[in-house]
Amino acid sequence: GRAMVLDFSVRPSGRYVSDDFTKVGERLVNAAQVLTHGFTQKTLLKDLLVSSPALVDHVLAGLKESEVAKMLGVEVLGLSILSIKPTPDMARALEADAREALLQREEEAISARRNMAVELEREIRENELKTDQLVQEKQRELREGKMAADIAVEEQRVQLVDQKCANDRKEADARGEALRAMLQPLKDVDWRTLLAAGAGANDPATQISVAFRELADNAEKIGTLNITPDLLENLLDRPNGNGNGHDTKLEHGRS
Fold first, then answer.
1. Residue 8, Cβ neighbours under 10 Å: how many?
2. Which regions of the chain are under pLDDT 70?
3. How far apart (Å, rounded) are the C-alpha atoms in residues 248 and 238?
4. How many whole angstroms separate alpha carbon 236 and alpha carbon 183?
5. What is the radius of gyration, based on Cα positions, of the chain?
6. I need a surface site. Which of 152, 193, 246, 247 has the fewest CB within 10 A?
7. 159 Cβ partners below 8 Å, 6+ apart?
8. Residue 88: its pLDDT value, please?
9. Is residue 2 within 8 Å of 27, Cβ to Cβ?
């Protein structure tokens, strides 16, 4: 069967009858290209540029099972791919995609940094606000504590004043009760009797006062009454400056 595919006949001189022997490599290369094409159709170009090991495994396995290799009587032992290079147009397209991707990643990084800065600023403001709230809360607690202390002092002061007033009322009630108890037996006694029994019974001034009170009580029975300073001095037993007394006239009529 292989002889029908390629002619490997050799002349007595040692030369091949035809150049079919040179086509063995071409047939294998064609089979490898077919296998490579099938692999590349399933792989993205940007991934294919870095997928030479996977490509070698795929093509080598395909060549070992290829009918072409079997018909040629060739056993494929190994395969190497020196490089995978895109065409100039593809390279420019890949470079454009790469630049676009880089720009996009850069913009994403810038956006992420901005978002991070905004978030950090928000956290700082929240912390500042929380700090202000804590300070205000502490100040409010201090004010409330001082107010509570002032209220407690005022309440104690009110209690003290109330207690003092109650004590004063009790003391006044006690003094009033004692005074009423002392005056109760004397309420029906004439004032003249009380005055005579008192310490001022022998006092000239007191006696003169009683006399004047008597005169006042009987004013409707008195016609004319003349009182001079000399009279008062004589009544009080107090001599005047020149040692001379003066007469006093007392006239009254009876009704």
1. 14
2. 1-10, 14, 16-23, 186-205, 207, 215, 219-220, 222-223, 225, 231-232, 234-255
3. 16
4. 31
5. 72
6. 247
7. none
8. 82
9. no
Record the tokens describing residue 62, joined without a space: 């395909």
Cβ count within 10 A of residue 206: 15
pLDDT in tens, 95-135: 787 788 888 889 999 999 999 999 999 999 999 999 999 99
First-to-final CA distance of the chain: 194
Query: What secondary structure, in 3-state letters, does the chain show?
Result: CHHHHCCCCECCCCCECCCHHHHHHHHHHHHHHHHHHHHHHCCCHHHHCCCHHHHHHHHHHHHHCCHHHHHHCCCCCCCCCCCCCCCHHHHHHHHHHHHHHHHHHHHHHHHHHHHHHHHHHHHHHHHHHHHHHHHHHHHHHHHHHHHHHHHHHHHHHHHHHHHHHHHHHHHHHHHHHHHHHHHHHHCCCCHHHHHHHCCCCCCHHHHHHHHHHHHHHCHHHCCEECCCHHHHHHHCCCCCCCCCCCCCCEECCCC
Neighbours of 62 (CB within 10 A): 19
Cβ(81)–Cβ(44) under 8 Å? no
Q: Which residue has the tokens 């060739």?
A: 74
